[in-house]
Write a structure and sequence with these properties.
mainly alpha, 3 helices, 44% helix, 6% strand
Length: 108
Amino acid sequence: MTKGNPIRLLFSTVVLLVGVLFSSFSFAEAEESPLPANLAEGSSVTVQAMQSDTGASRSMSVGNGAGIPAFTMTTNPDGSEDYSVTLQILALMTMLGFLPAMVILMTS
């Protein structure tokens, strides 16, 4: 089978050894870490930690704790909507990257 081709035998041996050596890493599992009891509460853990600091400001607004607090949209009483600065920057950077690509695609 491999009498005339020693390179093929060497290659298959190396592949087999690498497969056997690194197969133990595929069964690795992450250990479960205990979660703090206050994590399930409605308030943010970061806000609680910042308020417990000495000299912390009490003017922080605490959200509902769900989702990413940086991405917020508030609806005004007149029906208009205000978006957070991070969402505005995300939209601006998306347009700055996408619109020139569309112009290049349409003119080529």
